[in-house]
Design goal:
heterodimer; A: mainly beta; six-stranded mixed β-sheet; five-stranded antiparallel β-sheet; 11 strands; 0% helix; B: mainly beta; four-stranded antiparallel β-sheet; globular
């Protein structure tokens, strides 16, 4: 079974709105990362949050991590049509480097 | 800066044939990964490697073999291809444990 599970599976919003995606995982982690994938392309790293961090920002991205609930959220503020993509969370296991991805959230931003 | 490259990008093969997907990275990253991506399953880890000559199984390793004789190369072999192995295969690398992973552009494999 997969370590990270994203919710929702798909999200459709208007340009300018905020988009929130959630990720849950099952075991202890070293860090959690979010990636973006445009259709037909490889994944691109967005942001990394370590297990001892609770919140991190990068431009229009805000990531939170709650290790007690084994969950993370990715917020994209003021979304743009160009943000249309699939977003994946990935967890790195404690003490290792095995990196497991979830099934992803497909985000559609309508212009 | 070539980064990480995969070949072939597109391949059609017949059931039972052996297929090798190549992966080459120019950063001298220690860690390398192979994932497959199928609709509805996200990315599933096939094999990973911490260094040359050190490999380990991931979530879905049955039917696949890897080798890592050189740091920069991490080929994935399907010993006897099956239709269920039709997928997009992504190779990736990372400079350190838990670091950012950099992905190749993928290899589209169809087994008929």
């Amino acid at each position: 079974s997969q370590q990270g599970e994203e919710d929702p599976q798909a999200l459709s919003i208007q340009e300018g709105e905020n988009a929130t995606m959630n990720c849950s995982y099952k075991t202890s982690i070293n860090n959690l990362q979010w990636y973006r994938q445009n259709s037909g392309r490889g994944l691109v790293h967005l942001i990394l949050i370590r297990s001892n961090e609770r919140e991190k920002h990068s431009g229009r991205l805000r990531v939170t991590l709650d290790t007690s609930k084994k969950s993370s959220s990715l917020l994209i503020t003021a979304s743009r049509a160009a943000d249309t993509a699939s977003y994946f969370c990935a967890t790195v296991n404690t003490g290792g480097f095995k990196t497991i991805f979830g099934a992803g959230t497909r985000l559609f931003v309508k212009a | 800066d070539a980064g990480i490259t995969q070949s072939p990008r597109y391949k059609i093969t017949e059931t039972g044939r052996q297929v090798t997907l190549m992966c080459h990275q120019t950063w001298s990253h220690s860690y390398m990964f192979w994932y497959r991506q199928d609709l509805g399953h996200g990315l599933r880890l096939i094999y990973y490697s911490a260094a040359a000559d050190i490999t380990d199984k991931g979530e879905v390793s049955d039917g696949y073999v890897v080798s890592r004789s050189k740091t920069e190369n991490f080929p994935l072999t399907l010993e006897s291809a099956t239709r269920s192995q039709t997928s997009v295969y992504f190779c990736a690398s990372a400079g350190g444990s838990g670091n950012t992973i950099y992905f190749g552009e993928g290899s589209w494999l169809t087994v008929v």
